């Protein structure tokens, strides 16, 4: 079976992972030094978010050069060393590809501004248009930025350019042949540097509907309608991705990296209609697509069951796995989002018991809550563009605590005031060092779950059998030697009620790691794994 079908991938946000040179910003050398932590956890791969040159208008997703390393994060040699270290540890390496837009500091965009209005090669790479109204003083259409405000900015010569995100991120025109050819060169460049795959940022947004028609009211208010927007989920995306898949399949192998046929493309596509999302992972397109519907689901058994059933059915029709995700650098961390660390731990056991692949975000395995970032330290463009109403995503991007009782918790040798985002006081018990020797820690829970999961992989979509009703206040299912029950209701749940039979081996309950007996009731907000086959061992990782 291909490695990516049930892989657990660990997301690294380099600026917040580990700082090797004491400047307060994480870097590639620091990430390489901390990779043994990821291996110890039991992940199969790492996904590294953008480390490319960037003015940082949007956390590095505004890229000025797609084939280089940001000087404050290291050098190309540092990236090569990180990839080599990962491969030596048995970890695959996935990097971000950001094809929807560039930075406004990209040479292409600077050339476009200098070229002046009208048709031409320079502006043809982007979406420049004349405005509406008597003097072109109104945007070309009613599209709104996902970061707030109009999706158009006017330049001094009178034309407008499109940016679905921040104004510093002008959208490329993917009908331009030079744009398509250049990104193929980018794919080849990083393949030659040993990457095993690419996570494609906003993979649903590259092509815009011909003629750029108005989108109408309610934009960005109902994610379930994303696929109906004229700037999302256009048909032209799929031939493009089939071409990229063919490129990955035929590009020469690189020592240490996976074979060409095992390379992976991952869609970050905010498409919430399961059947439409599944189109991105057809047999000749991408292999994985993030399941944002699972991340967005409330702490409610029927809602979660509906997402699981819909996702499994849609991907089964394409013969592809579901790719579950519980947190990321863009999402509020689970203990805060769900309202408690216990619920977050239970959600993790639910996700890791489901058939398919899963993505973890750095610090998730430590149970980190969303951090409070003071107003004057916020860097996310959502903050100013929302009129200081939306604090943005920085609270999930605060540097990882590795050791010690006070900031910077081993992340850096810099003074706490000099780290690129501030860490809160009171995280001493959450550090990786503090948790590695604690059998009841969140790190121990994740490590045990990943070890058990590896010994009992789910063979496919048809392996999941529900033992709970669709409207029940709990979830109970089994698949391939492993059963999972999660009590989302307000009262203790007698395990006999679920009809599950097996040996309890892992619980999300906070404490010393002791597992309840099968005859006991499961407390509210708690999850339990049971072995339903006769294999020996309880799956716990050594401490």
How would you explain this protein's 3D organization?
The chain has 543 residues and is of the alpha/beta class. The chain has three domains: 3-99 and 195-202 and 233-436, TIM Barrel (Alpha-Beta Barrel); 107-162, Alpha-Beta Complex (Oligo-1,6-glucosidase, domain 2), CATH 3.90.400.10; 460-531, Immunoglobulin-like (Sandwich). The protein has 14 helices and 18 strands. The chain has helices at residues 28-41, 76-88, 107-115, 121-124, 177-192, 237-250, 274-278, 292-296, 301-316, 334-338, 341-353, 382-385, 432-436, 442-455; strands at residues 8-12, 45-48, 92-97, 128-129, 152-154, 160-162, 197-200, 264-267, 288-291, 323-325, 357-361, 465-466, 474-479, 482-487, 493-494, 503-507, 521-522, 526-531. Strands 1-2-3-7-8-9-10-11 form an eight-stranded parallel β-barrel.
Q: Helices and strands: which structural class?
A: alpha/beta
What portion of the residues fall into strands of 2 or more residues?
Answer: 5-15%
Round the Cα radius of gyration to an integer and report it: 23 Å
- C-alpha termini separation: 30 Å
Total number of strands: 18
Mean pLDDT: 95
Proportion in helices: 25-40%
Per the CATH scheme, the topology name of the largest domain is TIM Barrel
CATH class group of the largest domain: Alpha Beta
In CATH, what is the homologous superfamily of the largest domain? Glycosidases
Based on Cα principal axes, name the global outline: globular
Q: List low-pLDDT spans.
A: 535-543
Brief digest:
The chain is α/β, with parallel strands linked by helices and 543 residues long. It is built from 14 helices and 18 strands. 25% of the residues lie in helices and 13% in strands.
């Amino acid at each position: 079976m291909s490695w990516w079908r049930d892989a657990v991938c660990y997301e690294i946000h380099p600026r917040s992972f580990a700082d090797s040179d004491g400047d307060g910003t994480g870097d590639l050398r620091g990430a390489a030094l901390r990779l043994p932590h990821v291996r110890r956890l039991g992940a199969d791969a790492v996904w590294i978010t953008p480390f490319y040159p960037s003015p940082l208008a949007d956390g590095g997703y505004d890229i000025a050069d797609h084939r280089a390393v940001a000087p404050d994060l290291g050098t190309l040699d540092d990236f090569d060393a990180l990839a080599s270290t990962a491969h030596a540890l048995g970890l695959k390496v996935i990097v971000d590809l950001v094809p929807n837009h560039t930075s406004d500091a990209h040479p292409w965009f600077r050339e476009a501004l200098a070229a002046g209005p009208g048709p031409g090669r320079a502006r043809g790479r982007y979406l420049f248009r004349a405005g509406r109204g008597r003097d072109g003083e109104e945007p070309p259409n009613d599209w709104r930025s996902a970061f707030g405000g109009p999706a158009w900015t006017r330049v001094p010569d009178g034309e407008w350019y499109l940016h679905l995100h921040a104004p510093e991120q002008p959208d490329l025109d993917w009908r331009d042949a030079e744009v398509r050819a250049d990104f193929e060169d980018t794919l080849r460049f990083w393949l030659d540097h040993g990457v095993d795959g690419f996570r494609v940022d906003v993979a649903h947004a590259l092509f815009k509907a011909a003629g750029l028609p108005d989108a109408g009211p309610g934009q960005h208010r109902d994610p379930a309608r994303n696929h109906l927007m004229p700037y999302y989920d256009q048909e032209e995306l799929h031939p493009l991705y089939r071409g990229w898949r063919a490129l990955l399949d035929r590009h020469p192998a690189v020592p240490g990296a996976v074979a060409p046929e095992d390379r992976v493309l991952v869609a970050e596509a905010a498409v919430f209609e399961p059947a439409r999302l599944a189109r991105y992972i057809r047999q000749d397109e991408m292999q994985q697509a993030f399941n944002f519907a699972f991340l967005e689901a409330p702490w409610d058994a029927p809602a979660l069951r509906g997402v699981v059933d819909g996702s499994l059915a849609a991907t089964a029709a394409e013969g592809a796995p579901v790719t579950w995700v519980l947190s990321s650098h863009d999402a509020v961390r689970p203990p805060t989002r769900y309202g408690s660390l216990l619920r977050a731990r239970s959600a993790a056991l639910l996700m890791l018991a489901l058939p398919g692949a899963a993505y973890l975000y750095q610090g998730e395995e430590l149970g980190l809550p969303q951090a409070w970032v003071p107003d004057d330290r916020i860097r996310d463009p959502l903050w100013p563009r929302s009129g200081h109403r939306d604090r943005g995503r920085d609270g999930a991007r605060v540097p990882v605590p590795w050791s010690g009782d006070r900031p910077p918790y081993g992340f850096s040798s810099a003074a706490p005031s000099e780290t690129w985002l501030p860490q809160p006081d009171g995280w001493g018990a959450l550090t990786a060092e503090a948790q590695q020797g604690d059998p009841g820690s969140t790190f121990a829970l994740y490590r045990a779950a990943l070890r058990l999961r590896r010994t009992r992989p789910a063979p496919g979509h048809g392996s999941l059998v529900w033992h709970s009703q669709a409207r029940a206040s709990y979830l109970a299912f089994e698949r391939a030697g492993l059963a999972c029950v999660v009590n989302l209701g307000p009262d203790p749940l007698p395990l006999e009620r679920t009809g599950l039979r097996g040996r309890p081996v892992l619980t999300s309950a906070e404490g010393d790691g002791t597992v309840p007996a099968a005859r006991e009731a499961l407390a509210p907000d708690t999850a339990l794994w049971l072995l339903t086959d006769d294999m020996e061992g309880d799956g716990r990782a050594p401490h």
